[in-house]
Design a protein that fits this description.
About 40% of the residues lie in helices and about 10% in strands. The chain has about 210 residues and is α+β, with helices and mostly antiparallel strands. The protein has 2 domains: about 70 residues, no CATH class; about 120 residues, Aspartate Aminotransferase, domain 1 (Alpha-Beta Complex), CATH 3.90.1150. It has a 4-stranded antiparallel β-sheet with strand order 3-4-6-5, with helices on one face. A two-stranded antiparallel ribbon has the order 1-2.
Length: about 210
């Protein structure tokens, strides 16, 4: 699954040594509904949809040519600006993480090789869903947990496997930066986050 990596880090199918790799257009500004499956030539796949034999017999049905072309153009642009954009996003991410750390958040995988645009963190004794809801009402689209399991209320199995306590893992929040994210957006988020966390802590102290 290289959907999140496309356009943010260098991708080399051969160097990865994998048998297959999935990509999605919307992650690089392309049209929704278009994607790619890169397969090692030595791998044999059985089609799930039979019919007209499109896409080399692996997925029958009329191709969305406009979306495919749009995906190709989006990939070209994303790859061309990948290095510069990765540096820019990593700088914004580091600024955000430093501020979150100062406000008492626990940053997961800080210092590890990772995407330059994603921050995964939690604040002790603050529910992730509640925090996400308040940030959403303030105009910031965040998520609790990973993108593929944001509707699951259970703590992240990955965080638990990393040794993160269940109470902390349950409060995990994910923030992603994109090509339209600017320094002012990050600073405004930090100000809003500080205010929201303060409100939630005050409520918790009153309830106690």
């Amino acid at each position: 699954d290289a959907v999140q990596a496309l356009g943010k880090v260098e991708l080399d199918f051969r160097a990865l040594g994998v048998h297959g790799m999935t990509l999605s257009a919307h992650k690089v500004g392309g049209p929704l509904g278009a994607g790619a499956l890169v397969i090692d030539k030595r791998v044999e796949l059985a089609p799930l949809i039979a019919g007209g034999g499109q896409e080399r017999g692996l997925r029958s049905g009329t191709e969305n040519v406009a979306a495919i072309v749009g995906f190709g153009v989006a990939c070209e642009r994303a790859v061309a600006r990948c290095a510069d954009e990765a540096r820019r996003l990593a700088g914004l991410r580091d600024e955000l993480e430093q501020a979150l750390d100062a406000l008492g958040a626990r940053i997961f995988s800080a210092g590890a090789p990772r995407l330059p645009n994603t921050v995964f963190f939690a604040v002790a004794d603050i529910d992730g869903e509640t925090l996400v809801g308040k940030l959403d009402r303030a105009g910031f689209a965040c998520a609790s947990g990973s993108a593929c399991s944001s509707a699951n209320p259970e703590p992240s199995r990955t965080l638990l496997a990393m040794g993160v306590e269940p109470g902390i893992a349950r409060g995990a929040v994910r923030v992603s930066l994109g090509r339209d994210t600017m320094a002012e957006d990050v600073r405004r988020f930090i100000e809003t986050f500080a205010r929201v966390v303060g409100e939630l802590r005050n409520l918790a102290s009153v309830a106690a």
